[in-house]
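TOPIC: backbone geometry
CONTENTS: sequence, C-alpha cells:
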Amino acid sequence: MSDLRDVYITGTGAFLPGEPIGVESMEDYLGRVGGRDSRMGRRALRWNGVRTRHYAYDAERRATHSNAEMCARAVRAALDDAGLGREDISYLAAATTQGDYLAPGHASGVHAELGGGPLEIASFQSVCGASLMAAKAAWLSVRAGEHQAAAAAASEFSSRWFQPSFYEGTALVDAKGRLRPDADYLRFTLSDGAGAIVMEPQPRPGRLSLKVRFIDLVSLADRFDPCMWAGAAVDGRADPLSTWAFAGPAAAHAQGSIALLQDFELLKRVIRAWIGVYLQKVDDRRIVPDEIDHLLCHYSARSLREEIVSLLEKTAGAIPEAKWFSNLLTVGNIGSASIWVMLDEFLATDRLKPGEQVLCIVPESGRAFVGFMLLEAVA
C-alpha cells in the first residue's frame, strides 16, 4: 500500500449548452406530445423546484451539440482550470446514461472531439452514479502511478429522450392522446450539460486543490428491479430477454420500450436503501458527520431532498442543511454530470478553506446504486 500515491483534483470544468430556459418555455424546447400541453409538467416543476435549465436544442428543436462535444468542452474547461493542455493527460474516463451511439462507447466520442493524439480511455454507462465510477477509475490510475494526469468527465443529452417521437404511436399514450404520468414527469426532471475534473499526484501550486480521501461505490442491484431505465417495457423490465434488443426496434418502440421511464413507487423503497448504506458508513466511521464541512448531495428534486433530510434528522448521520450546497434550482438535474457541475460552481464561491472536508454523495435510482467521495481542501 505504501507505493500508492495521494491524488488531488487540480481542475474542474463545466459546460451548459445555450441560454438558461425558464419553466414557462421548457415544453417549447421539448415539444408537445400529441400537440397538447403536458398534464404533469407544472406539477413536476413544483415538486422538483427547478427554475431554469439548459437544453442542447434551440427553439426550433434543432440539436446544437452532441453529447460527446459537450463532454469534451467540459474536459477542456477542467484542463484550463488546472493549467494543463490536452497533451498533459494520458487517461480519460467518460460517463453518461447513453452516448451518441449505441456503440462504440462514450469515451471514444469524447476523445474524437478532444483530439490531441493517442489516449487511454474508459467508458462508463449507467445513470447518475456513472460519474463516480469514472472518477474512481481515473483516481486509481493516478494513484497506482500508471498516469501522471487523468480526466474524469460526465455528460448528458437527456432532452433528446423527451422529444414527442419517443412517445407518439406507442403504448405510453392512451386513447385520448395522454402520456403516462410517470413518463411525462421525467420530461420535466432532466437537463443537458457536462462536467469534468482533472486528477494529478500533487496539488496545484498557488491555489486550493482537493485531496481525494476515498471513493466508495455500492450497488444494490441484487435487491431491486430497474427503477429508472430505457430499453424495456414497464412490465418486463426485470427480464433481460424481453428488452428492446430481443423485440426489435420497431416493436420495442410500439411497446414504449425505447423511452426513459421511472418507477416512482419503487423509488420510495430505493431512497431508504440509499440512506441505509449511508448510515452504515457512519456506523463504520468511514464517514464522520461532525467532520464534514460541506455536503454536495446530488438529488433530482427539492421534494426528494426534503424527504432525505426528514429521514436523517433523527439519526446520528444528519449533516445540517447549512452545510449543503446545490445548484439544482438553476441548472436542473443533469444526471451523471450533476456532481461535477455542482463541484465546479461550489469551488467558484470561494467558501472552501484549507483543511475543510467536502463529502460528495451521488445516489442513482437506475437499479439502486449510491456512491460517496470524500475530499479534503489543501493549499
Observations:
- The chain has one domain: 1-227+264-379.
